[in-house]
From TrEMBL, chains A, B:
Residue ranges constituting the FAD-binding domain according to the UniProt record: 10-369
Family annotation (CDD domains): PHOX_C
Protein name (record): FAD-binding domain-containing protein
One family name in Pfam for this protein: Phe_hydrox_dim
Superkingdom classification of source: Eukaryota
Coiled coil: none
Protein family: Belongs to the PheA/TfdB FAD monooxygenase family.
InterPro entries: FAD-bd, FAD/NAD-bd_sf, Phe_hydrox_C_dim_dom, PHOX_C_sf, RIFMO-like, Thioredoxin-like_sf
Gene3D superfamilies the UniProt entry points to: 3.40.30.20, D-Amino Acid Oxidase, subunit A, domain 2, FAD/NAD(P)-binding domain
Keywords of the record: FAD, Flavoprotein, Oxidoreductase
A GO molecular-function annotation: oxidoreductase activity, acting on paired donors, with incorporation or reduction of molecular oxygen, NAD(P)H as one donor, and incorporation of one atom of oxygen
Domain Phenol hydroxylase-like C-terminal dimerisation: 425-633
Amino acid sequence: MAEQPVLDTYDIVIIGAGPVGLLLSTCLARWGYKIKHIDNRPEPTKTGRADGIQPRSLDLLRNMGLKPAIMAHEPAKVYEVAFWDPSAKAKGITRTGTWASCPSFIDARYPFTTLLHQGLIERVFISDLEKNGVNIQRPWTIKGFRSDEKKDPEYPVEVDLEHVDGGAKETVRAKYLFSGEGSRSFVREQLKIGIKHKDPIAHVWGVMDGVVKTDFPDIKMKCTIHSEYGSIMVIPRENNLVRLYIQIASSTDPDWNPRKTATEEEVQNSAKRILQPYSIEWERVEWYSVYPIGQGIADKYTLDHRVFMGGDACHTHSPKAGQGMNTAFLDALNLAWKIHHVEAGFADRSLLHSYETERKLIAENLLNFDAKYAALFSQKAPAAKDIAAATETERGAEKKPAGEEENQFIKTFKESCEFTSGYGVAYNPNSLNWSPSHPAQSSIINPKGNKNRTGRILINSNVTRVVDANVVHLEQEIPLNGSFRIYVYAGKPSVTSQALQDFAHNLNKESSFFTSYLRPDINSVSHHEKHNPHSYFFTFCTIFASKRSDIEISRDVPQVLARYRDHIYADDIWDHRVPDATAASHAKMGLDQERGGVIVVRPDGYVGIVVSLVEGSATVAALNSYFGAFSSKSFGEPRAQL
Amino acid sequence: MAEQPVLDTYDIVIIGAGPVGLLLSTCLARWGYKIKHIDNRPEPTKTGRADGIQPRSLDLLRNMGLKPAIMAHEPAKVYEVAFWDPSAKAKGITRTGTWASCPSFIDARYPFTTLLHQGLIERVFISDLEKNGVNIQRPWTIKGFRSDEKKDPEYPVEVDLEHVDGGAKETVRAKYLFSGEGSRSFVREQLKIGIKHKDPIAHVWGVMDGVVKTDFPDIKMKCTIHSEYGSIMVIPRENNLVRLYIQIASSTDPDWNPRKTATEEEVQNSAKRILQPYSIEWERVEWYSVYPIGQGIADKYTLDHRVFMGGDACHTHSPKAGQGMNTAFLDALNLAWKIHHVEAGFADRSLLHSYETERKLIAENLLNFDAKYAALFSQKAPAAKDIAAATETERGAEKKPAGEEENQFIKTFKESCEFTSGYGVAYNPNSLNWSPSHPAQSSIINPKGNKNRTGRILINSNVTRVVDANVVHLEQEIPLNGSFRIYVYAGKPSVTSQALQDFAHNLNKESSFFTSYLRPDINSVSHHEKHNPHSYFFTFCTIFASKRSDIEISRDVPQVLARYRDHIYADDIWDHRVPDATAASHAKMGLDQERGGVIVVRPDGYVGIVVSLVEGSATVAALNSYFGAFSSKSFGEPRAQL
């Protein structure tokens, strides 16, 4: 190593400044990591590309504080999807139905898809990165890399970078290398990682963004249109823009040619025929492109847990369900906090293994879904009663007769809504997502009635913050700070007083998860630190089943939890989904409204474990075992005593 | 006039870039007027001054598209007010109760007061002005003005301006001059307009913004604290800032001296004594000031309807209720659209007379309220049951036994909440605000059940926009575009089909209010124009008591209304305030859910008139008479035939 003292070192080198690279970079930059981020384009995306932000992704952007900057561009919001088919009665197409894109059976804060030009979304991240001192180096590309932990255990990855015009060159060392290069990934090719094509059918798509003048009534809705002249998909956009997707060729065509193309004018003429009896004229075309797409998934997301890939480098699929950017975001989020916990010394390095297992499953689900979704759309229009049944809300919905099965259409529809909204992402059991086979074993884990499912995001709820009486969205109260989120539902103070004291007492014991990762600078932390006064490993929230005015923090909250004084809440806001509950947030979580419970949420928002809040040491002991399963230390009493 | 060809001309010269001047300038700049705007400070407010945005003002800022920029600063939000008094049992103060600052009996979108440094708010306006080509000229001041319609009927006002260092001078001509100079208004003095002091009691206030370390539990709430050592008011702010108001002297003191002052340290020591048994230490003081305040109101807001004043130039009062900036905003809003309608040729010049009559009444109410509010706070702590009764919501509230009167406390409390929220502003009947003595006379005006009160803002409601299925806040759908807002509640299409056709037919008749003010460029208006395709005088919205999916614009909506295709709505969103209504927006307005009705809202958001939607010509005839009462033309059939 002494021979190479001149190489700059970074925590991570990130290749590609699309959604996956930018989200990863933004998280790690905020959490204090040193980043080299390059992109081979001279500037951010100018036109076209992905543009759909699903409801769950909007939650995530809000949690990062980026939602206002996104919404400032006044994106289009898609609440419903309309279906158009050849009319039986007249010439041309007719609307056969509309569906909510995120029906109310999904408890979403933002029950719509947000549509905005990818370049504008990229710029929101780039401007945040600049605040944290990271500037994307453009137009630069990767020319080679080597990873060898034996040679340099601290910075095992050596990366060769080059200006795209071949002039400047640079070799740097890093702890990690990440490829967010898109479907043609140099890193993936170098690693000789194959792509598996689940569905052998490939397509050529034409996509056109423009401003149109039309009397087609659903031009501001997402539409799937089938006609005797072909099919088209309509996606509204900001600033009166509309995107049209037209399938130009399919590998099922007799004359299939993956290089088949069509001119702008041909696509417009095709759209005019398909939209009959309505007229359409283009005032302006902003972007037009033809590209072949095959569904594919990378065999591996990493080889050595030092060089990782995410986003389109790992999975490609049709643009129809608008999942590309959202899946990329969640790849990055999943990896970001795991790298952070390993590098901060909180987690065992094996935590990184769960990136591929968790995210590859989601990509596989996405590809399976893509096929199902296509089939759902191509079958005959569903009956109105099925749509009504599929989109019904809890309130006012007719009770289903006992034993009556949902039909296949409704089942698929509901699944597809969950999937496209992003609320359907579910990670399998592992050391992070508790299941009966998890090392943490205790009768108080997963209490009866619990409605949060491990591996899924926390259920939304409204509560009142005690210190300032603000009504807030509880699931958004902790920003994306890389910490585990521990929600102590404290039920009624008169009932849980002893349990809370015991909880605090056991937290403070030597070698608990709490005392094991205290900040080294804990004695000089500002009085105003809201989220991480004790440790970057966790943030606590305490929620009482009381009215705000009945809670006195100095009297009701043990000191260790009271230190999070901006995270103490009254569960006193009525919710139409649990109209009879006196403590709606407790009720939505499926926790006892008197006795409470503890919910641990991973830094990325997915539920890890739910435990009863009981007197004695069992609650903290269960958390110690849970965290001990993937942490760099083991906590508490020997496990045999649990 | 020929002797002065060199003078630049403006539509308006605005003196002062505080809230009142900025809001006026922003509106008029957007609507295309040529503005000279000066301020005698070298830059916007750096620290201190007003900082409370009441719920109704936040609605207004949102309607102007400025709310996101305000909220980007993460202001504090005050949901509750806490009261602290000397403890009977122990040494020091104790909390005697808390009240919602905007209880749920007020149907507010934002039931809180937003607190943000005035300079940040000013910059939001300034940046919007710059987009419209207006730059505040600083530091310049006004040295003289003359108004003479005989000399120059078009630009009657001549204004002498000067750089504050006396170097540069400029004389310009304008149609209007506006003083938003604050309480020491040069313009007011020149016009020799007196100030009437309703309450002879004056006060000296100390105000301190800073970051504190304290164990006082309500430091993030608005608090009124009485102690044996004096009184203090706590107002939370953005970025952990807190503002303290301390009364330093009162003209009721035996040793009253309006020049009495106190040092920063004296005020801090005083606060420490008052807050016992809690401790408080300052980490940083951002601003400290001592100033005398007397309640006062200008005798006139204008002399000749060319030179106007608004904001603190017209009314001064204690800062306790946080009304200064909000009242200033509404002064400006009221004047802005009236100048616009006169200059656009829509309204008779006499419309400008209503500025003083409407706004002076509000200032008088404010001063009366100020006294009542002070009394409310100084009396003994209210009983818990009275607070509960005063803040109860519709849902779940105990029914009051018939005949039981609300007690005085509850009555005053409710009034004060309406007032401080801004939802209590009510203009008296005049040509704009219909009453039985209005020239428009028809049995279909003010239909039975109507819940909107003329001179008050439109009731809030949620509806679904038909073209894109977005769920929207109806009262926000028309931006602050200077146009009258005509809400056609169209009930059930099967019932109102003929009435709607007749409405459209009569609109299109020669010399209706509709045909009288068509845009001269109507034939070249863009297909994408949403709000003013026909005229800047009005914007139409049409709301059906149907599900969105049952509405087909091309079939159900007459062409003239269908042109506003982005303003066609389905009244199909459930509302907890009218849980049994099938068409909640119709129900909240008190309109028949089958037959609908028409609500005309002034450009500033206040209801002008409510009329039934009937078959035949009566509905349009009633609107013709209403608009004819203040317009530059008279409309429709001779009035005798109504």
